[in-house]
Specification:
This protein is mainly α. Helix content is about 70%, strand content about 0%. The longest helix is centred in the N-terminal third of the chain and has 30 residues, at about 15-45. The radius of gyration is 17 Å and the shape is globular.
Length: about 170
C-alpha cells in the first residue's frame, strides 16, 4: 500500500485573537488531562505527590507553602498550562501542526518549568534527578503537550489526527 500524503492545513479557521483564546482553553484541557494521568500513574506506582511545583510557586511569589502545598501545586500547573498553551495555538495558527509540533511544544513546556524551578532554588538541574522522576515528568508533560496540541490543531486548523481530511 502506498503512503498517503499528509494533510497540510490550508489556513487557520479563526482570527488570530480567537486562536489565542483557543490556546487558553486547550491549556486548561491539557492540564486536566495531565492531572488525571498523574493521579492514575500514582495509583499504579504508589508514588506520592511531588511538591516541587508548590515550592516553586511559593518561592516565586513569596508565599509560604507549608499550609497549602496542594493548592500551590494546582496554581503552578494551571498557571503554566494557561501561560504556555497559547504559544501552541500560535504554532497551529501558523500551520505548525501535528505530533511533531506537539513534541516541540513539550520541550517548551518542560523548559518553562525547569527554568522556574532551578532559578527559584527548588530543584537541581533536571538531568541530575533520579531517572524515575525524569520519566514521570516527561510522561506528564507529554500528555499536556499532545492534548493541548490536538485541541489547538483541530479547532484552529481543522486538522484531524484520526481521520482522513485529504
Amino acid at each position: 500500500m502506498a503512503d498517503v500524503p499528509s494533510y497540510y492545513p490550508q489556513g487557520p479557521h479563526l482570527p488570530f485573537g480567537q486562536a489565542v483564546a483557543v490556546g487558553l482553553g486547550a491549556g486548561a484541557i491539557g492540564v486536566a488531562a495531565m492531572t488525571a494521568t498523574n493521579k492514575l500513574e500514582q495509583l499504579v506506582t504508589g508514588r506520592p505527590n511531588s511538591y516541587v511545583p508548590a515550592y516553586t510557586t511559593g518561592n516565586l511569589f513569596g508565599i509560604s507553602h507549608g499550609r497549602t502545598p496542594d493548592g500551590l501545586n494546582h496554581l503552578h500547573h494551571w498557571g503554566m498550562g494557561l501561560i504556555t498553551a497559547p504559544v501552541r495555538a500560535v504554532m497551529a495558527y501558523n500551520g505548525f501542526t501535528g505530533p511533531y509540533a506537539s513534541f516541540i511544544f513539550m520541550a517548551l513546556r518542560l523548559t518553562a518549568d525547569e527554568v522556574l524551578e532551578y532559578n527559584n532554588g527548588t530543584t537541581p538541574p533536571p538531568w541530575t534527578l533520579p531517572i524515575l522522576d525524569q520519566t514521570v515528568d516527561l510522561l506528564h508533560k507529554f500528555v499536556f503537550a499532545f492534548v493541548s496540541g490536538y485541541v489547538c490543531d483541530r479547532t484552529i486548523q481543522g486538522v484531524r489526527y484520526f481521520g482522513r481530511d485529504y
